[in-house]
Protein: Ferredoxin
Organism: OM182 bacterium
Amino acid sequence: MTFVVSESCIKCKHTDCVEVCPVDCFYEGPNTLVIHPDECIDCALCEPECPVDAIFSEDELPEDEQVFLELNAELAEIWPNITEKKEPLEEAEDWAEVKGKLEHLER
């Protein structure tokens, strides 16, 4: 099993989760993060750290966000690894509660 970064991270990109990950399985895109499913050890340390509740265990991922399981796997293969906390995106506060952000995902 793996944890999955969902839609809530798009245009926010808080990196509190990265700081607690013992296996460095987070990867950074232009406006979101993803988790590499083959590297995640299912420790659950990242989930409570996310201020926008964007991280779910695979079996708790909402039905309407199942596409993120595949997106995390795909994008983790091409985006660079991130291992240190950074500032969130400037507009993070404005986008924190917005739904339907998939169209804003930058590859």
